[in-house]
Amino acid sequence: MTQTAERPGTTGSPADRTDAWLAAFEDALTARDVDRAAGMFAATSFWRDLIAFTWNITTVEGPDGVRDLLGATLETTGPRGFRTSEEPTEADGVTTAWIEFETAVGRGRGHLRLQEGGSKAFTLLTTLYELKGHEEPLRQRRPMGAEHGANKERRTWRERREQEEAELGYTTQPSVLVVGGGQGGIALGARLRQLGVPALVIDKHARPGDQWRSRYKSLCLHDPVWYDHLPYLKFPDNWPVFSPKDKIGDWLESYVKVMEVPYWGSTLARSASYDEQTGEWTVEVERDGQPVTLRPKQLVLATGMSGKPNVPRLPGQDVFRGEQHHSSAHPGPDEYKGKKVVVVGSNNSAFDICGALWEIGADVTMVQRTSTHIVKSDSLMEIGLGALYSEEALANGVTTEKADLTFASIPYRIMHEFQIPLYEQMKERDADFYRRMADAGFWLDWGDDGSGLFMKYLRRGSGYYIDVGAAELVADGEVELAHGQVDHLTEDAVVLQDGTELPADLVVYATGYGSMNGWAADLISQEVADTVGKVWGLGSDTTKDPGPWEGEQRNMWKPTQQPGLWFHGGNLHQSRHYSLYLALQLKARQEGIPTPVYRLQEVHHTS
């Protein structure tokens, strides 16, 4: 591709216009002309950077935001080599291009949307995917495996692995300790392994995947297989669309072994403290009942996006004669045939548990406290995800990696505008279903602005159900429905604030989770948890997501106000995609590569 520093204009093909814009942008950056570069963005525009310029995950808005970002980062970033990686396209007056570039320390990929005849950027995504001199051992760089020739000091692969397992955490210390060995911790552990970062993943469960095996037996993923791949090793082509929990558990255990992720099961993290002078954590753990002290430089909490279970404290819980537990501890329906069960809550877990209990022959009542957004699974797959994550998408050349970057290229500020029309289609398609739910008395919503499930997930991580059948039980009256807050429990009933009594042998609190910084409070201190602040949410000033606007997920996958402390997690898609950027940040710090952070996460809410 031939580049020229001419001003981008309205003539030529989409490729010509993109080439001209990239050349002019690079020319401005090379000249350190921040004002000229900022002027190449539309009045309403967005630049989302995933660590390439900012060593942060952040979005700036408009020419003023671009000017501020470049003013702070341009000198140390040294960007160059902007080019398209495939033929740009044009639709509805917007030119869309996939791009590549380099920085002083790494190589990047991105996505660009141009408006105004190709003269102004509307959205720009820049991401770092590898560090120069620290590339992953992939394809041409893959390890030999076998050692040819004669060598009296030869050690086999197995001998080297056994030595590493014996020494790590004892005679040698991990650079990174990942607390939490679910899909998030495992994905990050695999990334760090490939980058040569000495890291250790620990989990309280005995085996990888036990986090899934221990949940109620009917649990399946509600996201489709194309959305849920782990890094490096995709699910086979004959893997089920929706993975049963035990199958996922077995896959995670196999993945840890195949990807050689250093992993300690049956390990509890008891306490952690940070030494500002040495830049080192002291983490006291208990492995198989034996105390071990670990001293990592970086501590990652991968204990689950939803954080700690919210278990309500209610009068009468101490006198209730039946069983009661949080949904995260629900063992499944088998012991409750013929029992009266009250499930407090009306989101994913509540519906799943109600459905399984009804199937076993329990008498089930759901207590709905606030409205819930419901979308039918097949409608979500076809309308919401089909263009990016499906067999059809793959046939159209949309790989998982391209889908991830496409999704990442849409700034959170305007993402709801893209989502609203999709959910309007779903509402129309399933109008009869929603009518029947309303007739049954179920309180429905579509999010504060009609943007549906995914924005609810990003903003608050709750308030929705992907219907795989249990909603029909409510619509048909097979699962009883009650409304209101729980006032107290008696020996044999749940009593609502309006006086309604619901007889119960079992109460399941499907009442959600708190912020992940609750884990930091338990492990480190409340002071550190407050220093970091709330984890998750965008600051959208919608229900359960208080402002001010953050522009990105609070404290996720990026530096926090506590040095050396990171949060990682989310669904399988986020665990896969964002583990790359977190791993690169950790690798850079391990190698001593300067990582000046632009716009360190501010703290507006502590819980």
TrEMBL record:
Q: Which UniProt keywords apply?
A: Oxidoreductase
* Residue ranges, compositional bias (Basic and acidic residues): 149-163
- One MF annotation (Gene Ontology) recorded for this entry: flavin adenine dinucleotide binding
* Xref: InterPro entries: Auxin_biosynth/cation_transpt, FAD/NAD-bd_sf, FAD/NAD-binding_dom, NTF2-like_dom_sf
Q: List, alphabetically, the SUPFAM superfamilies matched.
A: FAD/NAD(P)-binding domain, NTF2-like
Disordered: annotated segments: 146-167
Q: Which residues form the FAD/NAD(P)-binding domain?
A: 175-398
Its recorded name reads: Putative flavoprotein involved in K+ transport
State the species of origin.
Geodermatophilus poikilotrophus
